Amino acid sequence: MHLGNARTALLAWLSARAAGGEVLLRVEDADRPRVRAGAEARILDELRWLGLDWDEGPDVGGPLGPYRQSERLPRYAAAVARLREAGLVYPCFCSRAEIAAAARAPHGPGDEGPRYPGTCAALAAAEARVRAATRAPAWRFRAAPGPVAFVDRLHGPQAVDVAAATGDFVVMRADGVPAYQLAVAVDDAEMGVTEVVRGDDLLPSTARQLLLHRALGSTPPATAHVGLVVGADGERLAKRHGALPVGELRDRGADPAAVVGLLAALSGLAPAGARLLPRDLVPGFVLERLPRGAVSLKASTVASLLR
Fold first, then answer.
1. Residue 282, class by beta-carbon neighbours within 10 Å (0-12 exposed, 13-18 middle, 19+ buried)?
2. How far is it, in rounded angstroms, from Cα 44 to Cα 81?
3. Which helix (H) or strand (E) holds 191?
4. How many domains does the chain fold into?
5. Of the listed 48, 135, 214, 239, which one is catalytic?
6. Of the residues 170, 191, 226, which one is the last residue of a structural domain?
7. Is residue 112 pLDDT above 80, yes or no?
8. 131 shares its domain with 142
9. Is 239 labeled as catalytic in the residue annotation?
10. Domain housing 259
11. Which of 2, 33, 185, 263 stands the most exposed, by the fewest C-beta atoms within 10 Å?
């Protein structure tokens, strides 16, 4: 977990605690081949080291579990089955290379790759059965044209035409792994999540999740998309910027109160050099006052945590 992740976690925690709400920790590990052994335990330990806690999660339990997506796969399959029955999804046999080649000329890339050109949207059922005999399909959601409007707590009114920007999008991969959009929509609905605070790189995906909530008849949570932490060059934070992972800062003797103070200072919640615990920031916290753009972190600032 790098400092950008930690800042987003802190702000999500503060927003919930300041409102008297509960914090739910969910492990989004549905794509098992990408899961690193021990990563979950390390991240949870690092969050605790920073002074963050949660009311429900994989380690503490709760009435809305399980809290690992890898243990919720039948729920996603059931959601896709409902969408299939309603005629809102269709099988897609296109490879990524085929989509890129078809979309290259008329459309630029979307936030999840090239816009899907609709190659399989009108595929006859008989042809789909023939193809499925030799190649498992992905399942795509039919995105109706027109803007999907919503209000983000930080960025204000938004409107995204999913059909124009992304096209019909994948909800279940050919290998049976649920797409992020479907998994979080199903989980947020079933777990009663009322607010999501996350990085603003995910702002464009909100419209797709809203379409899924509408199709499944569920109530979507409110969203707030916070700016990312970037290096001095304006690029996404990485180790080349001197941004040590939270676990390495801990192992090298950093004071967690100094790390939280730095994250608070980046967010306009404390002066530079402050040493604070998350609970110190709860009184007076107002999410809408956070900076809306990216915040820059210098390598020298990170280094000062180790002095």
1. middle
2. 33
3. none
4. 2
5. 239
6. 226
7. no
8. yes
9. yes
10. 3-69+228-306
11. 33
